[in-house]
Every structure is written in C-alpha cells, then in structure tokens.
Sequence to fold (581 residues):
Amino acid sequence: MTSISAPVEAPPARPVRPTRDVGRLRVDRKGWLFVAPFLVVFALVFLAPIAYAVWLSLFREQVFFGGTEFVGLANYAAVLGDGKFWESFLRVLLFLVVQVPVMLGLALVAALAIDSARLHAAGFFRIVVFLPYAVPAVVATLMWGFIYGDSFGLAADLNRLLGDDVVSPLSGDWILLSIGNIVTWEFVGYNMLILYSALKVVPNDLYEAAAIDGAGAFRTILSVKLPAIRGAVMIATIFSIIGSFQLFNEPNILRSLAPNAISTFYTPNMYAYNLSFGGQQYNYSATVAIVMGVITAIIAYVVQLRGSRKGA
Amino acid sequence: MAVYLVYTLVPLAWLLISATKTQQDLLSTSGLAFGGTFALFDNIGQTFTHDNGIFLRWLGNTLLYVVVGAGGATALATAAGYGLAKYRFRGRRAVFAVLLGAIAIPGTALAVPTFLMFSNLGLTNTPWAIIIPSLVSPFGLYLVWTYTTEAVPDELLEAARIDGAGELRIFFTVTLRLLAPGVVTVALFAVVSTWNNYFLPLIMLSEPDWYPLTVGLNQWSAQASGVGAQPIYHLVITGSVVTIVPLVIAFLLLQRFWQSGLTAGSVKQ
Fold:
C-alpha cells in the first residue's frame, strides 16, 4: 500500500528541479492547483478504504466476548482454503471466458459494420446499439427477469408457442447463461462505442495505401483496421474482465426471482456482501474483497502485458 | 445488423408495451401485444402516488445525487485532467501511476470498507454517503486528459500568459471553451453512472426516504414476490420506464457533443 500512497502525500513544496526538455510547458507547481482537489477526494474514497480494508483483514471478531483479536494473515489463509470462495471464483471465471469474447466479438462486428460506409443510417444504428447502456442495471435485470419469467414474460409466450417447456431461463441449468445475456445486452453498445471511436481516428492515408495495394474490404479490416484499434480492444478487454470479476447487480437482483438457482455466494462480490450484511463478518468480508481485488489487478496486468507484447 | 437491432430493441419494446397494461392484462395477455385497456397514464399516476408518493421522493433523491455527485465529479476530473496534461510538476508521474492502479481496482471491492469507514464517521444513511464516492471518476479524468492534449494548444496558453492572465483565469476563459465537448462527454458518463448506481446506495442506505430510483424499484419488485405479498408489477414496470426516459433523452439531445468528445479524446495511439 505504501508504494501507492506515499507519492501522493509527498509535499509539493520541495524545490523544483531545473527545467529539462519539456518543450513549451513550464515546470510549474501551479499544476497542483488543478490536480489537488481531485486527489483529496480520491484519497478519501479510494486510498483510505483500501488501507482500512487491509487493517480490517488482520483481525477477527471474537465469538464469545465481542471485540476483535489480531490474527495476522489467518483470514487470508482461510479465504484461500474456503470452498465457497473458490466455487464463486470459478463461476465468474467461467462466465468471463464465455461472455467477454462473445460480447467483444459482437461489439467489434457492430463497430466495423457501422464504420464501413456501406451501412445506411449509421448514426441511427450507433445510437440504438448504445441505448442499453443508458438503462440502469436494476431496470435491465428486472426487465429481463420478467421476460425470462413463466408468468407474463416472453419465455412463457415461446413455450406456449412450442407447446412445451423448452426454455426455462430462471432454472439452475440456465441461469448463468441468462445472466450472461443480460450483461451482454447492457454492454455491447458501450464497447462498440470505444472500438468505433478508435476506428474513427484511423488516418485516411492508411486506407488509400491499402486500396492502392489492391486490398479488398475484408483484407483492409484484417491488415489495417484491426491493428489500428488494438489499444482500444485492449482497454475494452480489461474493463470487461474487471466487470466480470465484480459481477453483483444482475445475480443479486435476479435472486428474488430465482432464489433456488442463485446462492448467497454466487459470485465473490455477493459472497463479500452477504458476509458483511448478512453475517456481520466484516473482517473476513474485507479479506475476500482484497483477495479478489489483487487477483483482478494481476489478471488485468497480465492481459495488458501480453497485449502490448503482441504489438511490438 | 438487423438481427442486432431486434435483440437490442425487443426487450425495450416489451417494457414500453407492458407499461401500458393493467396488472390483470400483464398476467393474461401475450408479452408483445397490447392489453385490453390502455393504462399507461393510469399506471404513471399510480406510480407517483403509491405509498404516499415515495417514488417522487426517490426521483428527487436521484436528481440530487446526480446534480451534486456527477456535477462535482465532472468539475474535479476536468480540472485535474487539464492540470496533468498542461503542467509539468514533481509527482506527476506518481499521480499517473496511482490513477492507473485505481482504474484496475474493482469499485465494489472498496464498498464494504467504505461502508464501515462512513459508518464510523456517522455518514451512512445520509446523502453524503452517496455523493462523496460519486465525486471521483478516474475514467473521466483520463478522458479529459487525452482530450486536452488534442484540443488545447500550448501556444494559446503561452499567449494568454504573455498577456498577463493568471492560471485560473486562463482555465476559465480559454480552456473551458475549447474543452466543451470533452466536458459534456465526461458529464454524461458521470450522470449515467450516478443515475444508475445501485450497489453503493444499497449498502449505504437503510432509510427508504433516501433511496434513489434504482434501489427503490428493486425494493418494490422484491416486495412483490415475498410471502403475503401484494404484487405491484405494473408499477415496477412503469417506474422502470420513468427511470430510463430522462437518460435516453439526454443522450439523444447531446449526441453531437458526446460523440465528438469521445472520438477526439479517445483511446488513440
């Protein structure tokens, strides 16, 4: 933690080093004037809770006498040996491996389709595809939850049409898929926009060069567009990975419709939440949150490294 | 693309159509067909009067959190993004590293410790518990930063300094105008994340009087499926429509601004 928080607390009052090669910009402490307000709030809502969580994770509630006892790293050992934790972790991992490629694949196809001039009414498509992002996760989940339901949803209509109970999105076998569908519906448009924005700034001469070399539309996509937006794909991937590991809203809201299919430790985040607010096990809950945070950061970092190495 | 449009729009169409139905028609008619009576306005009326008009209170709370939280987040991110893009000062790289790290930290991992901290400070169950964490948007800062690099020429700042303008005056009179599309983009994304925020208020608030729309709606929905419940599905559905509409309108009206703000300041290499 110290390696992160120390530089922020470094007093800005030290003497400024002589100007190096900084172009027209001044070496200027006045920059702090603009950055400091952000950093103060940032320290309060990011750094302080992290530090507090680390502190909490070193203690354990006393069962009989109340109060807490210092236990060192015992909570971490407990989390790493906790079957519920690993079950929830493997579930979001499975979710990630399937849902993220599907979602980003769709987003990429949509972005390329809108970017290629052939599509009429590109502006209309862009805004419609982006629309679900403006829908709160709560509303999206309630909406899909009703649609999935067999009392007045579309799943019920479909089953009536087929004359049999073919689809049951809220049952144990289907539920992870159903959640994946909600998350995909919500975020394809957002990712499409990131990729599309990157495509927009590809310099035109690259396309001209490709055309002169006799490249067709497909070849242009493979050799010009995809390499040009690798950075954006990277960012979208990392955001999606972080999002998957954080999965909470959708399963937690669906739980009231499908209490048997979704447990209280369905995802690591739900586990941490229910430990705190259902079981008052704040110290253990903080440890679960930290372990998930560290795993997420490591995976995001590794993906980023691999991504940039491919670019070299 | 046509298939994709259907996938995007059918659920929303279902929601809109369902909002026009009475509770009875909801249960008895097919999902994508209109019911016997057109009850949209009746439903809206009931949504706003049910339980002593608590929905209106939730709408007001959401607006409060959005105006103060998202407004503040935009202001802080704009100033900081500009400061990082246009000034060279000691510790700048450290600030950069901290922010990158912060984007990778799952926000929900912070929620429990933040709750405990705020609880010790006596801030839980007050609007501050929602507003203060909404004030920081590392992604917004990142957007402003890249946008500033593109849109604000150093020469212009130098010229203003030679004319004797102070740093703050330059920021308010010169920079902000050039940054407008970037600021609109950041504001819009901050508004969406505050308007749609669910996890944080769920944890921080136990008093329905302070709920935003999202937590309130889910409470209505959960109420409908409990033991001895009195289902109000039609109100949950109509309330959902009322919750979405303002954001959709904002996105449509501001389309030109936020799209140019994204493309100029986006993930360009």
